Amino acid sequence: MEHEVETVTEAAAGDAPYTQGMPQLNFESWPNQIFWLLVALVAIYLILTRIALPRVASVLAERRGAITNDLLAAEELKLKAKSAEAAYNAALAKAREEAAEIIAAAKRAMDADLAAAIAEADREISKRTAASEARINEIHAGMRESVTEVATDTASALVAALGGQADDSVKAAVAAHVKG
Amino acid sequence: MATGTESTGFAIHPMDQFVVRPLFSDAPIQWYTVTNVTLWLAIAVLCVLALMVFGTNRRAMIPCRSQSLAELAYGMVYNMVEEVTGREGIKYFPYVMTLFLFVLFANLLGLIPASFTTTSHVAVTATLALIVFLSVTILGFVNKGPGFLKMFWVESAPLPVRPVLAVIELISYFVRPVSHSIRLAGNLMAGHAVLKVFAGFASMAIISPVAVGAVTAIYGLETLVAVVQAYVFTILTCVYLRDAVGENHH
Description:
By secondary structure, chain A is mainly alpha-helical.
């Protein structure tokens, strides 16, 4: 033990090239270490409280604020999107309704036009039918007349050829025959 | 002890690295002498400055690496203070942060080869522990008055046992700074001495591969120890601080 104390003091004097014992227990260096330690601690404390900690705290608070703001904005946008979707759906439904109405109106108009056109066509058809009928009747009458005439002529010619007297009796006979 | 006296041949001097030497003269060390302790304390302060001030210079919303580290350290210590000491302890956060960063950087800087580990000295750790001990005691009496002494009177125990417990609690209270300081200094000193011993063995050709491997492994372990001891020192500070500011949990 004495040996150790001796060597420690020797080392402290700075003569010995190597240390014996624990330099930690060389109390001559303690005031020096404690003094410089206190200087270092005060320096770190001042650096931290004056600059570093407020800065980091503000950065963290800012970030937290930004995140909260972003979340709120996202929430707002989500609501907006939802309302936009609802508006879109409403507009879509309205448009569908309108379209259906327009289609119905168009159908009605078309039906009316069609009915009118059909009526017109019917009228035209009946008119033409009447005209055609009149013509047919006319033709019919003309034909009967012609037949009677031709028959009378033919009969008269036949009678004449046979040596008979072509007179009104032939005419009457032909007329009666044609009628019958 | 024996190896030191033989200056010839195979000699390992694991304790050499802990010697306090003046930087600029051979005069005996006075309290104001600039020594290697001063140098490495200054480097630790500069490291704190570099990380916490220059590292956060940009105040970026999306932090760069150094700012992330600074924020990580801030957040870790802040949460520790808040969780361990409670809300009233938050106002002592800068002090705890100072201790944590100092111990962390002193420990880590000590791992640089040929550096000087300030926290391997009991003078340093005992001063730190005494600062904590005295602050806690003074704050305890300031915040709670004589009620601070109730801490030693364990009310959850049966009455006859309480005086015995009070004595035990009192002793453990005064042993705190001792364990607080010796734990840190002892861990670092032992680790660094072991590193040095293995490094010494590396000069013998036969075992040098083993020694180099061992030095590498122990270096990794010591890195862990450096961080863990800084953490332990800080969390114990918070635990002690809780007695002075929070409600008693005994």
